[in-house]
Structure formats: structure tokens, C-alpha cells
Amino acid sequence: MPDVLPPVKPRKGFIGFVRRHPTMAIGGFLLLLMLCIAIFAPYLFTKDPTALAPALRTREPSARWWFGTDMLGRDVYSRVLYGARVSLLVGFSVAILASVIGLFIGIVAGFNRVVDSIVMRVMDGLMSIPSILLAIALMALTRGSVQNVIIAITIADVPRVSRLVRGVVLSLREQPYVEAAVAAGTRTPVIMFKHILPNTLAPLTVQATYVCAAAMITEAILSFIGAGTPPIIPSWGNIMAEGRALWQVKPYIVFFPAIFLSITVLAVNLLGDGLRDAIDPRLAKRL
Fold first, then answer.
1. If DSSP codes are grouped into helix, strand and coil, which group holds residue 179?
2. Which residues of 36-53 are buried (b: 16+ CB within 10 A; e: fewer)?
3. What is the pLDDT of residue 194?
4. Whether the predicted pLDDT of 265 surpasses 80
5. Sorting pLDDT into bands at 50, 70 and 90, what band is 101?
6. Using CA atoms, how far apart are residues 241 and 137, in angstroms rounded to an integer?
7. What's the fold here for domain 16-38+82-286?
8. Are the CB atoms for 129 and 184 separated by under 8 Å?
9. Which of 236, 212, 181 is nearest to 49 (CA)?
10. Domain residues of the chain, as ranges?
11. Helix (H) or strand (E) holding 272
12. Count of Cβ atoms closer than 10 Å to residue 141 Cβ
């Protein structure tokens, strides 16, 4: 009788998690790295990102100036590292605010037909406008600041989150446990926040990662065209905007902030893909 090998047990711990969810692990590592860069920027051999030195302008990357200097003599390395603070602050803030507001609107609209017929038509109207154009229009009505950028991008992203939550709520309303709660005389607010809300958090978390990535790109676009954060603030969009005039002769001024922005957005998207696969393994297998 041939020997029967025992079944291979899945590895537990950190190594097992990385093997089961490599996309989430890579995205989380890159995002954690960017967070550490943003938090510990003053301790990573940086200088004052706003200090002007006209005598040292447009220096090539070297051992002294790791990323070179811009047309005003400012250290590009320091500006890029400090710029991570602005992009991550905008991305996380917009993701949290849009998720909370969209969650509330989606749950209420999914349970109340009167609210649904009014509020969701407003959301449809906002969704008919490209988010970047809506953000530009809102920024044109206010002065440039990080807070106003967060508010403008949040308003542009709320409709998409609320429509996602509303669709989930409409499907959950037909579930037997919800019908049983209604038959038992449970009040609607209790059903909404006890039975419906917990089941919307999984898809909402995945959506929040994409909102975060899109918000960072939108902030960079707004700053690049001069409609976002003030030029004095070292954001990645501002750095690229200031270096576009010298792109052909000094490409490093635009290259380094663009690389950091791309890596950060990639990290958030990988984390979102990993969360989606972990939440719905059957979908991952079909893909």
C-alpha cells in the first residue's frame, strides 16, 4: 500500500499572509514606506524645502544635491520628500470624508424612496460632470489651500461612493435576515445601522482605496495647472508645474516628483486590489 502524504497545511503568520495576498503585501509595504518618508522627512538629510539659493539654481543631481536643484536653487530632494505629506494628507482625508458622507447618503437613499428620488438625482447630476472639472470649478470659487482642495475633491467623489453604497443596500434589503427583522417590528434605524451598515463596509473599504489614489492624482493636476495648493507649498504637483518650463533641459525636476506620485498611486491601487481579492476570493479565482 503506497504511503499517503499528509496534506500541506497553509503557512500562518507573516510569510503565509504574503504568499496568500502578495498584491496586498506589496501595496501595503510601498504605502508604509511612503508614510514613513512623509513622517520622518525632517530626519532624512533634508533641508528647508522653501529656502531660496539663486546662486545654486538648476544644479544637476550629485552627491551634494541628490535630486538636483530647481530654478530658484531649492533642493528638489527635500521638496519631493515634504511633498509626500501633502499628497498623502489629501488622499487619506478625501477617502475618509467621501466614504463617511457617501455611506450615510447611500444607506438613507437605499431605505427611503423619497430621499432616493431627490438625493440620487442630485448625485447623478454631479456625476455627469467630470470630477476634475468639478474640482476646478469649486477651487475657482475659493482661495488655494490644502483644506479647500480636500473639500473640492471630496464633493466630486461623494456621488460615486453614495451610488455604490446605495446599490449594496438595495440588494441587502431583499435578504431573509433583513425581512425577518422587519417582520419582527425592528425599527428602521436599527435595521440600517445594525444589519445593513456592517455588510457595506467591505466594498466601501475597497472603494476608499481607489478614491484615495484618484484624489492624489486630482490634487497633483490641480496644483499643476495652478488651481490647487499655493505655489509656496511643496507638493508634487507644484514641483512638476515649476519644472515644466525646463523639462527638455532639466528633466529631473519633473521626473522625481512624478516617480514618487506614480509609486504612491500604484501602492494604493495594489492595496485595493489585494483587499478586493481577500474579501471576495471567488472573484479572484474567476479572474
1. helix
2. ebbeebeeeebeebeeee
3. 79
4. yes
5. very high
6. 20
7. MetI-like fold (1.10.3720)
8. no
9. 236
10. 16-38+82-286
11. helix 252-279
12. 8
